[in-house]
Amino acid sequence: MSCEKGDGDPMEDPLFILESGEVYRNPTEVKMSQIVMPCHANHCGELSVGQLLKWMDSTACLSAERHAGSPCITASVDDIHFEHTIGVGQVVNIKAKVNRAFTSSMEVGITVSCEDLFSSCQWNVCNAFATFVARRTEEGKVQLKQVIPRTQTEQMEYSIAAERRRMRLTHAEIITDLLSSNTAQLGECQEYQGAVSAERTRVESVELVLPPHANHQVSTFGGQIMAWMENVATIAASRLCNAHPTLRTIDMFHFRGPSHIGDRLVLKAIVNNAFKHSMEVGVCAEAYQGAGALRHINSAFMTFEVLDKDRKPRTLPRIRPEPVDGKRRYQEAVARKKIRLDRKYIISCKQTEVPLSVPWDISNQMYLSYNNVSALKIMAARSNWMLSSEKNKVSLYTLEENQILCFKVETHVTVPAEQAFHLLSDLRRRHEWDRHYQQCDVIIQADEDDTIYRVATPCVSKGGKGQDFILLASRRKPCDSRDPYLIALRSVTLPTHPATEDYTRGEVLCAGFSIWEESNAVTKISYYNRATPGVLPYISNDIAGLSSSFYSTFHSCNKYLEENRDSQTVLPPSDR
């Protein structure tokens, strides 16, 4: 929490001066500011998370509708982690803007901050990404116009939105697979003396959807449904600990179907498992009208803590699951906790805070791949690259940030972009144009987009040892014409491939290629590399020598691409 006056002012002027001198404001940005009144608060005098979710959903929906020009509905919400609580009398500031639009859906970024009017303290509460879908009009399905990013931040969010969408679309299937594999390894549930029966925490409640609960399209607000779900989840959590819990995390969830005025919404919650300092509550929302059948609207998993007087998490009582379904929920909660921690550790960290080599396994593959590609996209979106030198149509740029030196090498080739992508994607052939790649072997072909290689490089000094690297290569084709082809590289660790005495284990923080199609025959290739001195074979204290090394390597790269422009490239087959 920051109490520096003006630091991160949530009501700062949204106008931005572009390099051209033009005054710019994002046309989709919507703001909401609310003073927290007692009617918005819980028993502790803190803003109810349910009320906050309603405000967030309303603000995001207005942003989506401003861009779409038509009614929109909430389709999904990514993980939300609540960093701080908000007290009565404080001001909640919510900003929402459309990061990217696809065919009929769009991602809306939401930032929630809080300010204390008396002390001028300001702090971030949470960040979220919601997906909204434009509803059909009388003319048929809506075709959304593209978002045009104008600032560096907007370009970065626009680019990464495609990667978040990719993860969103495969999330449910991957989570199901991970739960199946992880729960099979957990064995039987542990028995704890004095454990609380899970059935004691079961809650069921019904709500009648009235006009105040619906939007201007007579559909129930997604935020209102989330608020009702948070209410029953809080009751379930309270029954376990006999105290007032604090909601910390809501896992990514999707709305399975709409709800309308007149619906009876049945909300069910139960504590699935309790760990030392946190508990997972599963909650489900179903709807019906009259004597009709129940319709599944939404399911979510919420993580609660109980704080002591010093705001530290208390130790929680253990849960005793009921047979069959209770034990299944108990074991799946253990697996989800591991997945959740992996996801938070890899995705939530700033790029400069993620450790160089993260252990890879099948449970965190999706998140490491996301982090790998996002790190490259963030580096590519930087606008403050400095041209260091240029030779034979190969340009070398440098950028220093957080005491880390970054490089960009830019060149053009008369090879179709897709062919250049396929040729550069196969690291097994990189030794044909890059003398720093002495040997490259496939270790794991995780899927068609992600491959783990072991790369060996020659020694750079007489009598020294060569380096080897365990690299995750993540490939991405363009989502649309405004995206490049991408090949992202970063170090990972594998227990099956520890460091050996013959090589010094090297590390790659972030590297890779961005390949842009400028015409049918001309392609712009940008190579990026972020590393600390001594980490990569390219890096040396001699900038002139470094420039010479890059020029030599990328002239060879251009020649390799030109010679193989018509060749067939076959990527490694999957061994899964």
TrEMBL record:
It catalyses: butanoyl-CoA + H2O = butanoate + CoA + H(+); tetradecanoyl-CoA + H2O = tetradecanoate + CoA + H(+); dodecanoyl-CoA + H2O = dodecanoate + CoA + H(+); hexadecanoyl-CoA + H2O = hexadecanoate + CoA + H(+). Pfam families: 4HBT, START. The keyword Repeat applies. One of its GO terms (cellular component) is mitochondrial matrix. Its main location: cytoplasm. InterPro entries: Cytosol_ACT, HOTDOG_ACOT, HotDog_dom_sf, START-like_dom_sf, START_lipid-bd_dom, Thioestr_dom. SUPFAM superfamilies: Bet v1-like, Thioesterase/thiol ester dehydrase-isomerase. The keyword Transit peptide applies. It is found in: Cytoplasm; Mitochondrion matrix. Keywords: Cytoplasm, Fatty acid metabolism, Hydrolase, Lipid metabolism, Mitochondrion, Phosphoprotein, Repeat, Serine esterase, Transit peptide. Its EC number is 3.1.2.2. It comes from the Eukaryota. Residues 26-138, 199-310 form the HotDog ACOT-type domain. Pathway: Lipid metabolism; fatty acid metabolism. Residues 385-555 form the START domain. GO terms for biological process: acyl-CoA metabolic process; fatty acid metabolic process. Has an acyl-CoA thioesterase activity with a preference for the long chain fatty acyl-CoA thioesters hexadecanoyl-CoA/palmitoyl-CoA and tetradecanoyl-CoA/myristoyl-CoA which are the main substrates in the mitochondrial beta-oxidation pathway. This is Acyl-coenzyme A thioesterase 11.
